[in-house]
Input
Amino acid sequence: MAALSIALSKGRIFDETLPLFAAAGIEPAENPQNSRKLIMPSTHPDVQFLIVRASDVPTYVQHGGAHLGVVGKDVLMEHGGDGLVEPLDLNIARCKLMVAGYPDTNLDQRKRWRVATKFPNCARQHFAKHARQIEIIKLYGSMELAPLVGLCDLIVDVVDSGATLKANGLEPLELMAHISSRVVVNRAALKTNNQPISDLLHQLEAAVSKST
Ligand code: PRT
Ligand code: MG
Output
């Protein structure tokens, strides 16, 4: 195994993370768009990328399947931080975790809200803070569809431009958290592999401050 494995999801995090790794002298050895390899060597002999589902990144890093990972704060909050350290905000893939629903929704109304989401832990915590009762409907995608077919009253989802909500007659109702992607590191690896990890973190940190 390469000295350092970095778990990344394809899609927006991959696209926005690559320039930062490139600035740190690390690039995928082949074109990630065309490759089906799940272990992707890099131009740096000691570093390889592991391609995993976005929601699986914290799990891989927590259990030592990868030394590091890049993951949205939304996914991280939902997973919990056991066995992980979160040393760096990459300031990419920014969005907001929101409660959303129909424009005329009155969130102060006392009722048992049916909430569709792929973030049940975040949703439970947020609604409990506001002393609102909820029933969670767990979904894995296309949350915006759920209220339209009567599956729920509200959704909890990440929102960027808000265009998807708008196109479906919904709107953001309440902000839960500002989201960006974070570097997470396996807590044990940070001790056993400290030198290469802190070198990489310093380089990434420099790339982030240059890009913002
Ligand atoms: O698909 P999979 O379940 O494997 O994972 P994923 O959908 O979480 O991966 P991906 O690549 O879509 O998102 C990775 C991370 O990007 C998320 O965990 C967030 O931290 C971050 N991010 C930033 C976003 C968005 N912006 C975003 N807009 N993730 C999802 N969206 C969705 C949004 O929910 C909506 O459905 O994109 C759609 C368009 O958004 P609007 O508001 O611009 O219309
Ligand atoms: Mg997706």
